[in-house]
Structures are given as C-alpha cells and as structure tokens.
Amino acid sequence: MMAVYQTSDLTAASYSVALFGLAATTVLLLLGQAWVDRKWRLPVALCAIAALVGIGAVYEARDAWLAGNGVPVVYHYVGWSVSMPLQVLALFFLVGTAGKLSAGLFWRLVVVSVLMVFVRYLGEAQFMHPTLAFLIGLVFWLYLLGEFYFGRMDDVVRGSAGDYLRRGFFWLRLIVTVGWAIYPLGNFLTAFAGIADDGSLSVAYNFADILNRMAFGIAVLSTAVLASEENSRA
Q1: CA–CA separation, 211 vs 55, rounded Å?
Q2: CA 24, CA 217: separation in Å to the nearest integer?
Q3: Which of 62, 85, 87, 120 could form a disulfide linkage to 113, CB 3.0–4.6 angstroms apart?
Q4: Which residues lie below 8 Å from residue 182, measured CB to CB, with a gap of 6+?
Q5: 27-233: CATH class
Q6: Residue 125, SS3?
Q7: Structure-derived torsion over alpha carbons of residues 179, 91, 15, 202, reported in degrees to the nearest 10
C-alpha cells in the first residue's frame, strides 16, 4: 500500500526532493561521461556512483519516516559511509589529471574518510563514548581538509596549467569544508545539546545532499567538461 504524504509533512517532501534530485544528478553524470576526455571520466563516474548510493539511502530513510515518523541514525550513516569516501576519491583522481599523486596518499584518504563516518556512527549509536567519537571524527575531517588545502593535492593544482581545474578544485574543497560541516553539527546537536530529531534534522540533511552530493557532482562534471575543451583548444 502506497503511503500518502500530508500537505504539511515537510520532512517527507524533503526526502522526495533529495530523491528526485539525486536521480537527475546520476543521469546527468552518466551522460556526462561522453562529454569529457578519457582521463576525466573516472572522477565523474565516482560522483555518479555516490549520487546513486544516495538514492538508495534516501529512499530507505523516506520509507522509515513514513512508517513511524522517525529515522534511525543508521539510515543516514549507511549512505555516508559509501558516498563520502567516493567523493574524496573523485577529488583525488580529479587532481591526479594534472600531476602525480602517491599511492600512500590514496590509501590515507580512503582509510580516513571511512573512519570519519564510522567513528561518528559509533558515537551516535552509543557503541562508543559520544564525546570521544565526535572529537575523533572531527580530527579525521580536519585531516582531509589539511590534505586538500595544504598537502600534495593543493601543490599539484597550484602548479597545473589548467585554469578550470584550479577554479573547480577551489569550489569542490569549499563544499567539503562548508557542506560537510552540517553532519558533525547535527551530531553535536543531538549528542550534546539534547535536541531530539523531530524531522527537522532530516530536512537539514536532505538539503545538505543538494550541496554535498548534487552540487559536488555537477561541479566535478563542469570542471571536467571545461578542462576537456581547454585541452582540445590547446
């Protein structure tokens, strides 16, 4: 039996907006594979997979909300545990089009991005002390930002000849800085400020998806398209 939304149910509506937006983004990114040079296809494909994972996560969470007007925290973290590392790797391979990056950096980014999400989940699920989990997750996130702003990836982008790559990398790491801050903020509000999730937190997370999954993927695609055109003219 199909669930019927109430007109005033903003939470359910936000899940649908995120669901349809992620579906449109996935299709656009898959089509975009034909618009870019071969070396740009992997980061675009990784963003498409991240958006596809988001579709499944949002669909399950919407069903949970409609079934009981509550979304267990695990629904959010299952999607993040896959999509956020994929987006970090999309950044890695995007920068890798302009210069050599080490295998050690690759594995550090993979491990830290997975642990960042997993540790925060352990804290919210009460498998780990919430304060300790929050602080460790924050350290992992700051490490990623350090790599993006001050590490080898930043050096490669600064030394690249492509103007579009520098602009794209600027906006992408800004999304990781501002957009991803919503998740530890939500963690802080529920774990330490004692705020119960009455649906407003889910609304915030769903609109964060517009920035963190959709805009991120479209920014990668636009960077790849413009850089491909720039290379062809050169």
Answers
A1: 15
A2: 11
A3: 85
A4: 204, 205, 208, 212
A5: mainly alpha
A6: coil
A7: -40
Report d(CA 87, CA 92) in Å as an integer.
9
Under DSSP, is residue 69 helix (H, G, I), strand (E, B) or coil?
A: coil
Q: Is the pTM of this model over 0.70?
A: yes
128 touches 136 (CB < 8 A): no
Distances (CA, A) of 10 to 66, 104, 210: 12, 44, 16
Dist. CA 60–CA 130, nearest whole Å: 25
Report the distance separating Cα 12 and Cα 200, nearest Å. Answer: 11
* Rounded CA separation 160/69 (Å): 50
Question: Is 202 within 8 Å of 58 (Cβ atoms)?
Answer: no
Collapsed DSSP state (helix, strand, coil) of residue 99: coil
Q: Where are the beta strands (DSSP E) in the chain?
A: none
Angstrom distance (rounded) from CA 166 to CA 159: 9
pLDDT at 18 over 70: yes
Token couple for 222? 């636009």
Residue spans per domain, the chain? 27-233
pLDDT digits (tens, 9 = 90+) for 144-181: 999 999 999 999 999 887 789 999 999 999 999 999 99
Both tokens of residue 89?
A: 């790797």
